Amino acid sequence: MRLFDSHCHVHLGPQGVSALLQSLPPPLPLAENASPSSSGDASTPFAFAGAAVMSTHPRDYPAVDSAVAALRENSYRAVPCYGIHPWFLHEVVLPSQSDGDGSTDGGSSGSDDGEWLAELRQRLIDNPDAIVGEIGLDGARWREVETDGNSEHESIWDRERVLSCPMDLQQHAFEEQLLLAAELGRPASIHVVRAWGELFDSLNVVRERMQQRYLTTDERKGEALNDRRLSKREKKEKKKRRKLLPPKLYFHAFSGKAGVIPSLLAACEEGNVLREDVYFGFPPVIPNFYAPKTPAVMQKIGIDQLVLETDLENGANAWNDMVRGMEGVADALNMDADEVAGRTHCNAERLYGGQLP
Hints:
Layout: E1 2-8, H1 17-23, E2 47-54, H2 61-73, E3 77-82, H3 89-93, H4 113-126, E4 131-138, E5 142-144, E6 161-163, H5 167-184, E7 188-193, H6 196-221, H7 223-227, H8 232-241, E8 249-251, H9 261-270, E9 278-281, H10 294-301, E10 306-307, H11 318-333, H12 337-352
Helix pairs in contact: 4-5, 5-6, 6-9, 10-11, 11-12
């Protein structure tokens, strides 16, 4: 059985992808009745299949390329992923936080999409096997506001905190990256923390903007007149074929409650994304993996939409966490570990589809 890491950052670790390669068990066919082991020794019946390597900032795009190349050179499958993580978005859209409160002189207009968005677009065009990620929204990434006065003796409880990047700018950048993924037909890996309402708002904005693009294109091509001759059924079928969101959406390190899942799937369906093309991951490195609610959330999602992920930078720990994640899913769903390995690997194949070499 093979395990695929659907979301990692091993290119950012102290030894890069080398640490991961050195920690992997030997890729040899082993007895099917061997017991699972998280030690990474030769007794494990599981083998490493590959990984999706997620960027966080334009500066690490080249490192993503190097990690992907190294994995492929060692006969593993690898997917390059380009995008800007909400934790580092302020470094791109707020290069000078002169106000000291996380905003720019012109508010949202301080975000200049030209350079970073053009670079992302070109990366994706140059790499047709790449997806968009890691992108998203984070309502819990804070920083303390710097003051001119002496705050050495100020109580920690009195210090003002703001989001590292204002939520309106996070939403704007997130929407632009989602639009790019939808336009180019690429999957997107999405990070959401304490921003579910904002996520639904942004999905609605992207759906509306994509719909307007289609209408504009139809008018330019003269198809609007032809559409009047279509039957209601034909118009409905044409509408369904048009993706208003990226074709596949992957909610990595999912932190929502079970109750949010039906609304989330419905929002994706409104963008003509099939429910089976919406995926979820739970990396053991995140405390939420061990939360009492997590088994119920996994059960609500079901095995057909779950993938394994580590979200790790240090590749030396990645194999152990892949096995730990597999065992967690197996326990939550009352399944055998080997079945979870096989099903999640198939899910990763569906998620990344044409992106896997």
